[in-house]
Structures are given as structure tokens and as C-alpha cells.
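Exercise 7 asks you to align residues with C-alpha cells for two separate proteins.
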Amino acid sequence: MLTVRIEALNLASGDQFLDIGCGEGRHCHAVQMLTQAQAIGVDLDEPSLELARQRAQEVDSNGPLAQFQSADASALPFADGSFDAAICSEVLEHVPDTASLIAEAARVLRPGAIFAVTVPRVWPERICWKLASGPGGYSDQPGGHIRIVDPKTLCKEIEGQGFRFMSSHHAHALHTPYWWLKTAFWSRRDDHPLVRAWHRLLVWDMMEKPALTRVLERLLNPLMGKSVAMYFERL
């Protein structure tokens, strides 16, 4: 499930790509499969990194093997101007210091590099917070969402760190009702029949890619896409 459009990163053979907060490495694996760039993912969750390393070995690759390492996004272990593109997908809603992360991304990207950032869309996210509010709720989970990110404010913050805004789009409209169901039935979010049924639909959609749901999601994304993706150029 890709939130960033890999083709928008303009990756060429031999380019260096960085995924900040890579989790289990889904975007790195896509870069590994679809381009000839070197993908590097960083995260602080070692179990996720280990799974990403295992999957990298299994990917039918067009490019070099994706690499993964533990690193703090606010103090990246790379030299200035090391990367030709970077992404930070569904991360900024989790971290307390977004300014340091953005500054580090600016530091390790060369001029002209693409930086893609994705965050949850505001109004679907607000519904999730309201449906499962209070102690132990949606916004009160270890490592969970600690803020609702306003894209306009975030865009200005990123531009202030030496980037030019290029474009944006929304993604994952079919995932929005799934999260509303999960938060509506928060005490049974993993085993409620409606949640399980919608999850099966999403898995089927991702694996089979039927034309009907692909067209439906494309039409619904501008209205209710769960995530907003923004693309910037490093000045």
C-alpha cells in the first residue's frame, strides 16, 4: 500500500533514496522493485526494521537491495547532500519535534532533490479522535498519533526550511471508513465483525486490484482520501 507516488520522485539509476520513518519498508521495497535507485530506510522500531530486511531479500528487484538501519530522524547519520530524494510518510503526526525532522531532511538532500511528505487528512482524522476519545483511545496509544497535522501549516513549515512546494494529492479513500469503524467499535477494534469484513475488503483490493474498486477509490480520493501527500523540491 503506497501513499507516495514513486514516479513523482524522479529517481534515476544510481540515485540515493531515503525513507525517514520507514516502518516495515513498503516504500523502500517499491523503490527497489520499480527503479534502479538505492533505497535506504531509517526507523527506531527494530522489529519493523528486521521485517523490512527480510522482505528486501524476497523482493523481485530492478535495483540494488534496499537497506535498513536504526536512526533518529532528528539526527540522521548521513552527510550533507547525500540523497537525491526522500520521503516521510505517516510519521509527523507521531513525533513531538517536527522542525528538527524537516531540518534534517533539508540537510541530507541535495539541491533539486524531491521531498515527499504524507500525513492523515484533517477531517477524517478528527472523526477518528472523536469516535474513540479519552484514556486508552485512538490518540492515547503508545507510539500513536499525538497531533492532527494541518497541511497548510506544515507546507509553510517545510517551505521555511528551504523547499519549494510542487504538488499534492490524496490517497486511500477506502481506508477512511475502515478507521471510522475501528474507532466506532474501539473496545473490539480487532475482532468486531464489521471491522474484520472491511479489512478483508481492503486486503482483497490490494492483492487483486480490481478495476471497480480502483476507479472508485480514484474518484473518492479528492473527497475522503485518508492521507494527503505533498511534494517539494529542495532549493
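Second protein for Exercise 7:
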Amino acid sequence: MPAMRWNWKGLAAAAAMTVAAHAATAAVPLPALGANLAEVSVSGLSAGGFAAVQLHVAYSATFKRGAGVVAGGPFYCAEGSVLNATGRCMTHSSSIPVSSLVSTTNSWAASGAIDPVSNLSGSKVYMFSGTSDNTVTQAVMNDLKTYYQSFVPAANIVYKNNIGAGHAMVTDDYGSACSTTAAPYINNCGFDLAGEILTQLYGPLNPRNNGTLGGTFTEFNQSEFVSGHGMAATGWVYVPQACTTTSCRVHLVLHGCKQNYSDVSDQYVRKTGYNRWADTNNIILIYPQTSTAATNSCWDWWGYDSANYAKKSGPQMMAFKAMIDRVTGSSGGSGLPAPTGVGTSGATSSSMVVGWAGVSGASGYNVYRGGSKVNAAPVTATNYTDTGLAASTTYSWTVAALNAGNAEGAMSAAATGTTLAGGGGTGGTCYTASNYAHTLAGRAYALWGITYAYGSNQAMGLWNIYVTTTLKQTGPNYYVIGSC
């Protein structure tokens, strides 16, 4: 962002050497992978956060799953003015006209400049703002929440704003001290932000891969999607091994200012935590890159490149959309609706029956547990018995309908179920603490003053130090109210 006055002189020589070596690498075309167009989402930090909001709102028919926004602000916040961008949209030096921005959104949607706002009602949003972020203050993110509430149900919005992070992407094991605002703008706060974003957008996930990743990183040619306009000649894509044969989800990741490859090498691409979740949950990750010609290496969220920067016709916006179109390809998504009525029954200590209502035109179904397909062949019935489960453990299942060519339609809402205890044991680990302490420990989150358990989303009561709750951990990042 233009007002971020970072001192990069000490890195100039190293950056120049990195760019020179990097330029020798030959980029390849972004592959067409037949990914599922119904399972597309976006997230970003700082300028990438503002750009993520732009994409989510302008291309809401494409980014159906929603957006993760770290230190961003409302759609069209700057209204084409760098003074607005550096003032009200970052420091909140003056108020942001949220109601006016909502009116502009509705007007542009009516004219076709952006997609219909009705698409937003089915999507989800995850917002993060550090209490030590003085670059994009929490007041700006508060206004973003107000903006989104005009289009997205409150139940679909999570706002995490109680960690002492500086202006940075937050991880649980890599980067600078949590309160830092300095290169590479990746901070270790003991909080897995990438995992929380992807879980909010896609539902409960399989545990992340903390070892060697099984997929491939590819440097792809961005020039075929856009030439100039503040974008680099190449970007990066991470493709899990399963996605070469399975129709996978797609998540677009947008770095912040001064975080492109020329600035910080591949740290944002490899160290922010997204890849290890993508690897075990069939999520293709696209990492577009700005060029050094872009102002402060930022994405265009105030009009430095185009007056249409926030519309579907914006050059960078069209490039992002073209990347999604390439990865989804002509075979991505069947157009079939999401199955409804998904539920669980018949629990044993090692199995669960998952059932759903039939979808007209479907030739079969795929069943996913925590994001991974569990059926070897298409399921022709409207129920499936999932086996090999652990006792006393809560799982989540989703279902997608298949057309005659086995292309998937939209993914259903998740249904959860808990297996019975094995051998008389209760299983799990219990934690008894105040609701406030649970949120600090990452076992729960607060929304509108009420505390909710991560995973099960069970309401725990008021978010304060006086209400005490016992949470039982029944799986990775999954907690229920109970006892051991």
C-alpha cells in the first residue's frame, strides 16, 4: 500500500541476485486441471486483502466459496483516490462511507459491471486483524464486517481480532515475532491462520501435512493472461498429487505489498501455511505475483493502474479470472446443484452412514470426509457407509453429485457425526477454562460476544473470563462441549 514506508535498502543487493537467478527459470503455461468451478475461493493480506474483497464481490459467481481477508477493507473503499487509500482505508483518519459503498455495489451489480450480489449470500468470509496492526487498523476491518453484513449472513462471517499481531500474515511456526511489522510480513503468532481461513471457507479439513509435500510447485507464465498492468511475467501454482486425476477445489492466494517473489523470494508462496493444508485436502493454490513496476509491489485496489480496478473489467481482475478459468477448464464443474438433506446415522465405533436427498440428473455421487473422497467408485445410491473410523471421534462429511461424465457439481453443506466409544473408553482430551482463555488457546472463537467451539461450532455462552466451559478435543482442531 502506498503509505507503507518500509526500508528495503538492506535487502537490495540480495533481491537483485535473487531476481537474476529467478529470471533464468523457464515458466510453463498454467495447467488446465478440470478443477471444480463450484469450489473456488480467494484470500489475501493487506493490498491482497483489499483485492480479495474486490474479487469476491465483483466475481461472486466465480468465487462462490468466499474470501479470507487479512488486514483489508470494504469493497471500493478508496473510490479511486490514493488519499482515501492511505487515509480512511488504512489509518481510518476519517470515516469510511460504508452505506455509500454498499449502494455503489448494488448499482454496479444492477448495471452488470460486477456479478449479482445475490451470489454473496451463499458464500463465507473469514476476517483477521491483529491488535498491533497500525498499518491497516482494526477500525477499517470493523467497517469491512459492517459492509459484508449487507450481503453475507452473519452466521457465515468469522472475525478474529484478539491476537497481538502486527501487519503480517500469521502462522503458528514461521516468521518474525508476532507484533512485528517488518519484512517479510510473515509473523509467528502460534496461530495457524491459513488453516483457519480454509476451514471457514470449506468446512472441517483433514489434518495438514507437516512433512514433505506430495504435490508440485510450478512457476507459470502470467503474461498470457495479462501483459504489464503491475503484474509479473510469472506466478506460482501448487497442485496436490491427487489433483492430477481428481476434480479439486481452487484457492487464489494474494500476497501483500512488498511480498512478491522479487521482494521476499518464495517465502509467501511456501511459508505461509496454505500448502500443507492444500496437500491433504485436494485444494489447488494459485499464487499470482505483482511486478516491481507495481506501486510498492501492491495489487491495484485504489486505481494506480486502471479506473476500472474494482470492476470485472479491471485488467488485474480479468487476469485473476482467466487463471481460474484455465485451472477449472472446460471439464471443471458439472453445473449440478449441491445435494441437500445430508445427515449421519447408524454410528458404530468405526463406521457412520451418510445419507442425502437425490439430485435430479445425477448419475452418481462422491462422498468426502474432511475434504478427501472416501468412495473408490461413484455411489449410485443416496447413502454411503464410511468405515475405518476412530472411536469417539467427530467427523464431517460433504457430498457432490456427478453427471454422466463424472464431473462434480456443487459441494453440499457439511454434516457431522461422532462415532461410538470403543471398548468402553470415552477418548479425547478435555480442557476446562474460561471462555476467554479457550479463545486465546485456539480452542474456540468469539463472534458478537458469544463464544463458539472450533470444529463443532457449539455455542459456549458469553465471551469473558467468568464463564467456564469444558471442551473435549475429538479430532484435529475439533472441539465439543463435554467431559472425559
